[in-house]
Specification:
heterodimer, A: about 550 residues, alpha+beta, 8-stranded mixed β-sheet, 21 strands, globular, B: about 260 residues, 5-stranded mixed β-sheet, 10 helices, about 10% strand, flat
């Protein structure tokens, strides 16, 4: 729906301050950036991570006492979807060398490298192959590919600065040194990156980069990567089980990971997969809507892998920080939570309050930018109210045309222009209303730079893991992460499966022990995890479903 | 105005005006501001098929519908299309489609390759239904015409925004699978036709030769205070610098 007359009134205020702001932008006069100390205090006072009640200690399991988001804790302190005693592990429905759980970018990359070790590979995924946050990444992928000005050293320093210097050095070393070869791999697979006529890759800055090293495929970089690696997997005849999320890992008598229990979302049967090695690549958790925030994430991003690995004995790290993307759409209602790429701010669009005034430089790191929006809308009280009772700040996209020339917005942001145009909003003439939106799970399960976890036979890659990005990921490093570590985990898993694996009896005793621990901590609950799908059901409908039963959120 | 007022997903109770829609023929009253996807959830459906990214890029939620006053079949992505009064709709979450069996590294980037793998493309009758059916506004018939003529470059560049939802294939009287032809063309173009990035290959070689090892190992062992200093002092490549810009200190650019 187009802007209401109330909002159109407020847009006039923005229009009045625009010529002077554009003039300053042309002269290179920017709104002052915060110092490192000012950043720290802004985060401490206004970032959602710092809000009272935003963290609560986990009462059971290998990271007992670690304080993270209560929404995740409530899933960790939940029971299995199944009674482990009812699962017959003396026989299995699928057998494979390597089982990859998750059909996104990390999982698909892992499947391909595992295949090249000679292992046979099965992907099990919750929705369709390729339904993942990878598909939705817009901005780009970082790699120090331009040797005359950039190096893995510079990339390393940027990653650490973004992560508040808390990142695991070995993981970052691997990320930055494997980055160019990950890009080369994609080029070999025929992915279409934006290039100059001579083949030089086009690159841009992102928040927190010291060199222009953001490679991209128009504004659909993730989709181009995902559909390319998926097509390659199809060419290699990788077996894929769709609509089959894993609900538990299966271990063996030696304590090694030996498969998984899958739930068929359509026939509602459970199936046992026996595998010599398992790669966990289940992605993030935006659909848990931490603190009630809207999210940019995929429908299936419910943090399932965290639960599975945790019950099997893997510790969690860096989950105490969550990435909120500063610019998620809050209007119109049907676009809520939608990612508005950082590229708009990179191109010079100011951030404004209800009075059309700037209150923060538009290119602060994501966490600082988000905290500043929240401060303006809460403590300062100068947010822009929406018709549905929400609040946002203006992202002044028309400024881009004013500074860089008529037609720039339509040319550089064709996807977003078309989308808003369908709602009756011309973003080249009218600003967008935005507010921070849940974007990325900075932390996850502990693993190392070979893709190994504390459980033998269990490997991991992608957003489900923690340590690479420290406390805050930079733009362009998640597409990189899934490719680099997906490929590594697949290779390590394949080598393990054909090499050091030994036979053993399948068991779900670890789940039973986890239930016992919940009981002994006095946690009596009928909650179940993993969640599998978010709950967007209509409460009135639920009230009328007299004979329907839900296990968690799934009917 | 606290952060908690930013609620999750749809808030139907705040949009009291409702409209009737017909889901596979069944009438439901839904809030008029919702997308088809959220309207289905409001009506009581739990989506398993036909729902993916909820952001208009994954192609899971293709939907076809008719308005009562028009003979035309309309298409849209359920997550991007707002409901209209009296629309008759169904989702098409899947449509059978053949994909040619190929290994990209065994192919040649010629028109004949596409014609050999997908000979049915020549059954195109030029009806243009595919173009009129594309929720991403891609000129499907045009890129198929280019593919038939062997112009892989054009076919690749015309299809960059394809979400592979499959509606083109579902409606094609020539029974071709346009989107699979498109990805074949894109991959042939990306691998064989567009010039390779020489700087990429060079940098991969430099890394393999260990050119950055000393510097990296040094910085990995550094304490946080020293790192913070280095970080603050690092030179930032200017936004408007030419491609061949070189930093003042070239000491970490490999040996």
């Amino acid at each position: 729906m187009p802007y209401t007359s109330d909002l159109k009134q407020l847009i006039r205020v923005v229009e009045r301050t625009r010529p002077a702001r554009a003039e300053r932008k042309r002269k290179g006069e920017e709104y002052p950036s915060l110092s490192l100390d000012e950043r720290d205090s802004r985060l401490k006072d206004f970032h959602p991570d710092a809000k009272e009640g935003s963290r609560t200690p986990i009462r059971v399991g290998p990271s007992k006492g670690y304080a993270i988001s209560p929404e995740i804790v409530s899933l960790l302190e939940a029971r299995s979807r199944v009674d482990p005693d009812r699962v017959d592990l003396s026989r299995w429905d699928h057998e494979t060398d390597v089982l990859v759980i998750g059909g996104g970018g990390a999982g698909t990359s892992a499947a391909l490298t595992a295949l090249h070790t000679g292992a046979n590979v099965l992907i099990a995924t919750k929705l369709r192959h390729g339904d993942a946050n990878t598909m939705m990444a817009e901005g780009g992928i970082q790699a120090a590919t331009k040797g005359w000005k950039d190096s893995p050293y510079d990339h390393y320093l940027d990653v650490l600065g973004g992560g508040h210097f808390k990142n695991d050095p070995e993981l970052v070393y691997t990320l930055v040194t494997e980055a160019p070869s990950a890009l080369k791999w994609l080029e070999d697979l025929g992915a279409m990156f934006s290039k100059h006529p001579d083949g030089t890759l086009a690159t841009l800055h992102g928040g927190g980069t010291s060199r222009r090293r953001m490679h991209y495929a128009a504004d659909i970089t993730g989709a181009e990567i995902m559909r390319t690696v998926r097509d390659e997997a199809r060419s290699c005849s990788v077996k894929v089980l769709e609509f089959s999320p894993a609900v538990e890992l299966v271990l063996d008598e030696h304590g090694a990971c030996a498969g998984a229990l899958l739930f068929d979302l359509e026939t509602e049967e459970y199936f046992v997969v026996r595998a010599k090695a398992v790669v966990l690549a289940t992605g993030g958790s935006g659909r848990l809507h931490l603190q009630g925030f809207m999210t940019t994430n995929h429908y299936g991003a419910t943090g399932d892998g965290l639960i599975l690995a945790y019950r099997a004995g893997v510790q969690l790290n860096f989950l105490h920080t969550v990435q909120y993307h500063p610019t998620g759409a809050v209007f119109p209602e049907q676009a809520e939570g939608l990612l508005i790429t950082e590229k708009f701010r990179g191109a010079g669009a100011n951030i404004l309050n209800v009075d059309g005034e700037q209150f923060v430089n538009e290119r602060e790191p994501r966490d600082v930018e988000s905290a500043s929006f929240i401060r303006e809308c809460t403590e300062i009280g100068k947010g822009v109210p929406t018709p549905t009772g929400k609040v946002g700040v203006w992202l002044d996209s028309p400024m881009i045309d004013l500074v860089l020339g008529e037609g720039t917005v339509r040319r550089e942001f064709p996807g977003k222009w078309t989308l808003f145009n369908r709602y009756g909003i011309d973003i080249a003439a009218e600003p967008m209303l935005v507010y921070p939106t849940l974007h990325y799970q900075n932390g996850g399960i502990e693993f190392n730079n070979k893709g190994e976890t504390a459980v033998p036979g269990l490997f991991a890659a992608g957003e489900v893991t923690g340590g690479i990005h420290g406390e805050n990921r930079l733009m362009g490093n998640s597409l990189l992460d899934i490719l680099v570590f997906g490929r590594i985990a697949g290779r390590t898993a394949g080598e393990y499966a054909v090499g050091s694996w030994r036979d053993g009896q399948l068991t779900l005793d670890h789940v039973q022990r986890y239930h016992d621990e919940l009981d002994s901590e006095g946690i009596n609950t009928d909650r179940v995890a993993p969640m599998l799908l978010p709950d967007y059901s209509n409460p009135e409908v639920r009230d009328r479903q007299l004979t329907t039963s839900y296990v968690g959120t799934v009917r | 105005m606290a952060t908690s007022t930013i609620d999750i997903e749809s808030t139907p109770e705040l949009a009291p005006d409702t409209v009737p829609i017909f889901v596979m023929g069944r009438r439901f009253e839904v809030p008029s501001s919702l997308t088809i996807q959220k309207a289905l959830e409001f009506a009581g459906y739990q989506l398993i098929r036909g729902c993916g990214c909820r952001g208009g890029i994954c192609g899971a939620c293709a939907t076809v519908y008719r308005r009562p006053d028009s003979h035309k079949v309309e298409v849209g992505l359920a997550c991007q299309t707002v409901v209209e009064p009296d629309m008759y709709l169904t989702q098409v979450p899947f449509f059978p489609a053949n994909r040619a069996d190929y290994r990209l590294d065994e192919l040649k980037p010629f028109g004949a390759t596409v014609a050999e793998l997908y000979p049915e493309i020549f059954k195109c009758v030029g009806c243009n239904t595919c173009t009129r059916s594309c929720p991403m506004d891609i000129d499907v018939m045009e890129y198929m015409a280019r593919a038939m003529r062997g112009d892989i470059t054009a076919a690749a560049n015309l299809t960059l925004s394809c979400v592979m939802c499959g509606i083109c294939a579902a409606r094609c009287p020539g029974e071709t699978v346009q989107y699979n032809v498109a990805i074949l063309c894109r991959r042939l173009y990306g691998k064989y036709i567009v010039p390779r990035a020489k700087h990429l290959e060079e940098q991969v070689r430099n890394i393999e030769a260990g050119a950055f090892e000393t510097g990296l190992r040094e910085i990995m062992a550094m304490d946080k205070e020293r790192l913070r200093e280095l970080y603050k002092e690092r030179q930032i490549e200017p936004e408007a610098a030419p491609e061949d810009w070189v930093p003042d200190d070239t000491g970490q650019l490999g040996n």
